[in-house]
Amino acid sequence: MNNFAHRGGERGGGSRGAAQINPADRAQLAESPVSIRRVLSLFGPHRAALAIVTAIIVATSIISMAQPFLVRAIIDDALPQQDVRLLALLAGGMVAVAATTSLLGVVQTWMSTEVGQRVMHTLRTQVFAHLQRQSMSFFTRTRGGEVQSRLINDISGMQGVVTSTATSIASNVTTAIATAIAMIALSPRLSLLSLIVIPPAVYLTRKVALLRREITARKQRELATLHSQVEEGLSVSGVLLTKTLGAGTAATTKFAETSQRLVGLELRSQLAGRWRMATMQIIFATIPALIYLAGGFPATSGGMTIGTLVAFTALQGQLFRPLMGILNIGAQWISSMALFSRIFGYLDLVAEIPEPGDPIDLDPSTVRGEVRFESVSFSYDDADRPALSDIDLVVPAGTSLALVG
Fold it and tell me: Which domain CATH number covers 183?
């Protein structure tokens, strides 16, 4: 190794404080959003399956729109005319619609989950392989618990985004569009009244999403700290060191403080923006009452039948459910970007000692087995002078050598 200089981690091979990759990486992992294009590129090999899932979602949304119209026909035609045959057909149609959409939902869930799991497998494998190419200094200055947290917890947290959030967005968007078209076809005037809720709902949800994103990033950092404390404090070497120094009480206190911070962050995460969401729910509950009230006035009803009014109210409920889902998914999506940022941050790490592009093949019959260092320097990250400077060293085969100091 000629003219080799290396900056290692903290002294003694341990760790203290947060992982020190570099300030730019820390800012990216904790706060910075990631490219949506990069997230979508993970699904490139699964285009065919995703196309089928999308087709199922669209078909389910269109088929489910038949329910309110079947109800209208029952109220306006079958019941007043006492047409038992028509009533049986319409009721059977309602059952068929429910059965069809449920079956399609099962198939869609199976396919989307399989795609999500394959993407997660690929991502886990890429991160594991990439970390194995990092130099020893990375693992010296980075807490083992944090590495495990990103590889296991963060990717598991992203699973919900991959297997649920994306398909929910597609389902809710198509359902909302189909429902809005059906509502306009039934009554343009009442449709306008129903849609006035969208601007305040979007504003309130955006506020909630930004708050949850900040809390999620902080919670993941505290989880990494907790993982590190468990691994370092309950390992054989950790317990031995704690008992030797009599630091058991201090270690327990430190662990309890981290756990208590997690309690506070979890409470904030669950309660973030609850009053805003409660306001939205009140608004959504008020709209059906206004629709029934407007249906009683000739100026707004336009000669609407009772069946049409009931069908419109049912469609209005179908519109607000996916709309609420879209708004909530937006908040979940933004908060999940912190997880993608942490994983992509590891994938973007550049190895301090890159692997040779054209490695030399060794012949076991000619290898002497000795290790030779030539002009080697080494310093710790927080040191003002090198621990080793321009060292030449030969370790003969079959011998052991330790540098202590």
Answer: 1.20.1560.10
Cα(166)–Cα(47) distance, rounded to whole angstroms? 14
Q: Does a structural domain hold residue 196?
A: yes
How many residues are there in the chain? 405
**Residue 343 belongs to a domain:** yes
CA distance 346 to 79: 65
In the block, tokens 């590129």 appear at 41
23 lies in some domain: no
Question: Strand order of the sheet with strand 5-8?
Answer: 5-8, 371-380, 388-395
The tens-digit pLDDT sequence of the chain (405 residues) is 343 333 333 333 333 333 233 333 344 445 656 777 888 888 889 889 989 998 999 999 899 888 888 998 999 889 988 889 999 999 999 999 999 999 999 999 899 888 888 888 888 899 898 888 888 778 877 776 778 877 787 777 776 666 677 788 888 889 888 888 888 888 887 888 777 766 776 677 667 666 766 777 777 778 888 878 887 777 777 778 777 777 778 888 888 888 888 888 878 777 766 766 676 677 777 777 777 787 777 655 566 788 888 888 888 777 777 877 776 666 566 666 777 787 887 888 887 777 777 877 877 777 777 888 899 888 877 778 888 888 888 888 888 888 776
Residue 252 lies in a domain: yes
User: Coil, strand, or helix at residue 275?
Assistant: helix
Bridging pattern class, strands 371-380 and 5-8: parallel
Helix runs in 31-133, H state only = 36-41, 47-64, 66-73, 79-81, 84-132
Q: How far apart are CA 101 and CA 62, in angstroms?
A: 10
Query: 3-state class of 7 per DSSP?
Result: strand
pTM of this prediction?
A: 0.61
Residue 163 near residue 109, CB atoms below 8 Å: no
Rounded Cα distance between 278 and 216, Å, is: 21
Return d(Cα 343, Cα 311) in angstroms, integer.
Answer: 47
